[in-house]
Amino acid sequence: MRYGGFKMPRVIIYTTNYCPYCFGAKAFLRSKEVEFKEVDVTDDPARRAEMERLSGRQTVPQIFIDGQSIGGYDDIRRLDATGELDGVLDERELRL
User: How confident is the model over 39-48, as pLDDT tens digits?
Assistant: First the structure.
């Protein structure tokens, strides 16, 4: 998929099947037409440990763009509200 004339970065979101913020983050990404890979850590301790190691956080969702942790639902919404998210998706740059 392309976004703003650029190839979409790879987006991965770690979720659980009972987390309302995970549902919100996925719906938000879909509303922005962002393709993503979902990694469900509900019953997968190894994947959850991977998520915690990569993000330094224990909560879900955890969202990564091109391998860089951007945080969870509130973080991605904040990036969108400030206009930074479009830049991250367009330019593959992330300045937190």
Answer: 999 999 999 9
Residues paired with 7 in a beta bridge:
2
User: Distances from the Cα of 6 to the Cαs of 9, 11, 61, 95, in angstroms?
Assistant: 9, 14, 26, 18
Coil, strand, or helix at residue 15? Answer: strand
Total length of the chain = 96
- Look at residue 55 and give its three-state secondary structure: helix
Q: Which domains does the chain have, with CATH numbers?
A: 10-90 (3.40.30.10)
pTM of the model: 0.85
Q: Which residues contact 44 (CB under 8 A, 6 or more apart)?
A: none
